[in-house]
Design goal:
The protein is mostly helical and 242 residues long. It has helices spanning 2-21, 93-102, 144-150, 189-192, 201-204, 234-239, and strands at 110-111, 114-115, 140-141, 198-199. 32% of the residues are buried. It binds heme C (4 copies).
Length: 242
């Protein structure tokens, strides 16, 4: 019996390694790969082209060479009496890009040049917004002065992923045991998670499935899993001192 238990423990321990070997990096084969033949609207079977193109792209360049149609909401933003950051008013940058499929107002197959065939809308289970008042705040500047004002946030330009949480009783660095994508250890929050100094959807998710834990995460999280003490929510505990 004891031997069997040991064997089972051994199997359990080796599982993460096995699943890591099978990790699928990049857009191809991910939820954002629309090149499969079931996507009849994607006539050129492009992997990048539903979102980017080489020419005639978005005037506002909300993300580099963005060619998808952009949502105009209208959006309801997060607010609370204790939210300190300067209110953005509406989503901007890469968050606006995500919402251009995920808010359920613009078709997945809507590009700047029009919608090819019948509109294909996002699955209701993956719809975020346009009412964002129940979603973590996005599209605002997170800098050293916000951290100072708030008192419960790391300074994003000096706190590095993997640094101890000095202000807490439990000081273990909130990093996963290993990364399935590009390592984030030693990078500041600004370098690893912010987009042009701003908190965006892509502060937590990596749509290209390359960064941090994203290749092995079903929901494309940049930081997943548990620290050495087996405590999870590492993504939250990276920025928040709580
Ligand atoms: C579902 C939409 C989507 C698809 C498909 C997509 N991208 Fe992106 N891409 C984005 C978004 C959104 C950004 C903005 C930055 C971010 O949020 O990661 C971006 C940013 C970029 C950037 C600039 C910033 C960076 O991360 O280096 C490059 C280069 C890029 N994508 C290349 C590609 C290539 C090449 C492909 C195809 C293999 C591709 N993308 C497929 C949405 C997409
Ligand atoms: C071109 C349209 C499009 C864009 C742009 C887009 N997505 Fe998606 N996304 C989808 C579709 C379609 C799915 C699959 C939804 C389903 O059927 O569950 C998906 C799935 C996801 C999932 C996984 C949901 C799950 O339950 O498995 C996450 C997380 C996600 N997207 C985040 C993002 C983020 C963050 C961005 C911007 C950086 C983004 N997406 C941009 C179309 C898009
Ligand atoms: C603070 C980190 C964080 C930010 C910012 C964030 N997400 Fe998420 N997202 C998560 C987590 C964690 C989950 C897993 C489900 C949960 O806990 O709610 C998730 C789940 C999802 C899913 C899966 C479906 C669902 O509802 O659970 C989609 C799609 C998604 N996010 C898209 C987005 C989009 C689009 C944005 C920007 C408007 C965004 N996320 C901003 C952390 C974040
Ligand atoms: C990249 C850094 C970052 C990550 C990751 C992150 N947050 Fe935040 N979070 C912030 C910032 C910055 C604010 C804005 C604080 C302010 O202005 O008062 C915020 C705001 C919040 C608020 C609202 C505070 C208020 O007073 O209204 C809550 C609650 C919260 N985060 C919880 C979470 C949870 C839970 C997670 C993990 C799923 C998470 N955060 C991940 C940076 C982050």
């Amino acid at each position: 019996m004891r031997k069997l238990k040991l064997l089972l423990v051994g199997v359990a321990l080796s599982l993460p390694l096995l699943s890591q070997a099978a990790v699928n990096k990049g857009i191809e084969g991910s939820v954002h790969d629309f090149s499969g033949t079931n996507n009849t609207w994607n006539t050129r079977s492009g992997v990048c082209s539903p979102c980017h193109a080489a020419h005639h792209t978005d005037d506002a360049q909300i993300v580099p060479l963005w060619v998808h149609a952009t949502s105009s909401g209208p959006f309801v933003m997060y607010d609370s009496p204790t939210f300190q950051a300067a209110r953005p008013g509406s989503p901007n940058g890469s968050s606006l890009a995500c919402l251009s499929c995920h808010d359920g107002t613009v078709a997945i197959n809507a590009s700047l040049s029009g919608t090819n065939g019948a509109a294909v809308m996002i699955d209701p289970a993956a719809q975020i917004g346009p009412d964002l008042h129940t979603t973590h705040p996005i599209s605002f500047t997170y800098d050293a002065s916000l951290a100072l004002l708030d008192g419960g946030l790391e300074n994003p330009s000096t706190y590095k992923i993997g640094d101890p949480k000095t202000a807490l009783t439990v000081q273990t660095a909130p990093v996963p045991a290993s990364w399935s994508g590009t390592s984030l250890t030693g990078k500041t929050i600004d370098e690893a998670l912010l987009v042009g100094g701003k908190m965006q959807c892509s502060s937590c998710h990596d749509v290209h499935k390359l960064i941090g834990s994203a290749p092995s995460s079903g929901i494309l999280m940049k930081i997943t899993g548990s620290d050495a003490q087996g405590r999870g929510s590492l993504i939250c505990r990276t920025c928040h001192i709580k």
